[in-house]
User: Fold this.
Amino acid sequence: AQSVTQLDSQVPVFEEAPVELRCNYSSSVSVYLFWYVQYPNQGLQLLLKYLSGSTLVKGINGFEAEFNKSQTSFHLRKPSVHISDTAEYFCAVKSGSYIPTFGRGTSLIVHP
Amino acid sequence: KAGVTQTPRYLIKTRGQQVTLSCSPISGHRSVSWYQQTPGQGLQFLFEYFSETQRNKGNFPGRFSGRQFSNSRSEMNVSTLELGDSALYLCASSPPSTTDTQYFGPGTRLTVL
Assistant:
């Protein structure tokens, strides 16, 4: 079985400040990990994914995430956020032939 | 390349009615998955189709069904609608090279009154 926990339901931050959105997962086998972003009234857009190889993954819009196997984490980071980054962010895990499991989402709110 | 399209974008139905939602995947994608998104439950997997065959199914009652056509377009149907079926229904397609990456459509917002 697999599961994913997004530790913060809401993260407020000021514009140009750094941000980290936390994601922990559990799985008994090796995993693929994903971060998606959802803007209001839209579907989910893939930000980045970890399938194998380098544990530091760079994505679109200046986001990056680091896969930490020992801590079973895949935290999303951005060094300087913009107002336009305000959105809902979802972490997802997929292992083996299981269907993907999504976290409950973290609402990133960027204040001017 | 056009993205995943879903029709209609918004739908209002009353309890007891049935509804059919449509999804057109990205050209060349053969895998289509459906999700239900609600504030209380988050994203929940409904089913996945690949080459017209249901490959995976989530934990939803039999009122929820789907199908996929030979051109990879997919439909999902919900019969005997309940108030709790109000949600955003998302469709996602995956390329043939890997089914791990999903590309989502904008969703259909279903409101059941």
